[in-house]
Write a structure and sequence with these properties.
single chain
Length: 213
């Protein structure tokens, strides 16, 4: 897909060869602007970017993100924390390696730690809504990045199966960070859905998966 063929709100992704070596997903023109900022910083031209279709990214994917942010945002209003959809990015360094990611949703309690639209600290919570084209990345490389950055809680949400996997951070015998599956929530045990590290924030299973439109 070329840039001329790109349409607003069309799900696309890029896999570029920037020094950050990072897969960045975007679904609208805001993503295009973010990519331009990254390349400007890295000194890379548009011809060095490859655009790839994100088959399997549906409107329901965005609706789950919107539902989550809507449910959580007003409950954090009087706190130092804020919830963000997939319009902000995080940049972290692991040794000499720079990683930039755009979570589908995140809760950040240090919102001053940013440069422009980029946070440089770790949020306390991240969520990814998986689709056919992103599930492998969300479950492997992206999960590993979040773990290395020691993010306390990671949700993998599957809107197709109406399932939420809640991962909590722990440390192995060598004191290396690792995620363990705290709970899998489906229709059968939906009353057990909770944001573990924000117990005062109430979120309903049916509200999260309200996909009627």
């Amino acid at each position: 897909m070329s840039i001329r063929q790109y349409q607003a709100n069309e799900p696309v992704s890029i896999i570029d060869d920037l020094p950050i070596g990072q897969f960045i997903r975007y679904r609208n023109l805001y993503r295009y602007l973010i990519v331009n900022l990254i390349k400007k910083e890295a000194g890379v031209g548009m011809n060095n970017i490859q655009l790839t279709d994100m088959a399997g990214a549906y409107i329901e994917h965005s609706m789950v993100i919107t539902n989550f942010v809507s449910i959580v945002s007003h409950q954090l209003k009087n706190s130092l924390c804020r919830v963000f959809p997939d319009n902000v990015q995080y940049t972290w360094w692991f040794g000499d390696e720079k990683k930039t990611v755009i979570p589908d949703a995140s809760i950040n309690c240090q919102v001053r730690s940013r440069r422009g639209n980029t946070f440089v600290n770790a949020p306390q919570f991240v969520m990814e809504v998986v689709s056919d084209s992103t599930e492998k990345y969300d479950r492997a490389e992206k999960k590993d990045i979040y773990c290395k950055e020691e993010i306390n809680e990671y949700w993998i949400v599957d809107w197709r199966r109406k399932r939420i996997e809640i991962y909590n951070l722990d440390y192995d015998e060598d004191q290396k960070p690792c995620y363990f599956l705290f709970r899998t929530v489906t229709e059968e045990n939906k009353e057990e859905l909770e944001i573990v590290h924000f117990p005062h924030v109430k979120i309903g299973f049916d509200e999260l998966f309200d996909l009627e439109w």
